[in-house]
Amino acid sequence: MSKAIIKAMEERLRQIDDEGFTGEHDDAYIQGTLSNAAECYARAAKLMLQQTLDSELPATPMNWPWHRSWWKPSPDPKRNIIKAMALLAAEYDRIERYEAPDANTVSISKTVWSTNDEEFNYDELEGLVYDHELKAGETVYKGEAVKHLPSAFAVRTALSVIDGLQDEAHNFADEASEGFADCSKPQINLLQSLIDAWADATLTVDFYGITGTQQYTITTEDVEASQ
What we know:
By secondary structure, the chain is mainly alpha-helical. It is 48% helix and 11% strand. Strands 1-2-3 form a 3-stranded antiparallel beta sheet, with no helix packed on it. It starts with a helix and ends with a helix.
């Protein structure tokens, strides 16, 4: 993986944590504003590499979408490339949220039913009543089938990876490796974000858990509806 991808992810997290440019904030820019800003930083890097600037830093571009006080090019073209990549990532995420507004949330898919409070295999009460020939007054159970994003199962994964790196370094160099994998909280958060993004982009959850279970007493109307 290119270091630039890591740096862009780091910049994106900085934009969110330090500048407050969250997904909710970015959702207001529906006409390619973020892509436009990314283009400005990419062009700044190009001009620097071509050495066509009259001064060290490029002036605020004519197509810069925000107030000029927000135009903050770096004298390092690599840094401007990173800013452009982070803005494009924000644009990509905005489009995904627009196309599938519930894609990044935990989804409660449906109410499900069970005769034993263990196997919730029925989406409809009528089918449960019919298949098990239940009578009015008998007790069954209902609950909510909940699906999570794959990243929900990556809890503390970053810490496990870091611990694994330290273990391998210790096996290689014994006490000389002490402190090799000491990471700051922002560095840990960055690694966790990368793992979460990989999980959500690669893995598919086709199972669900059950929450909010409660007893339900079959009524005469339930029995009649199942017939």
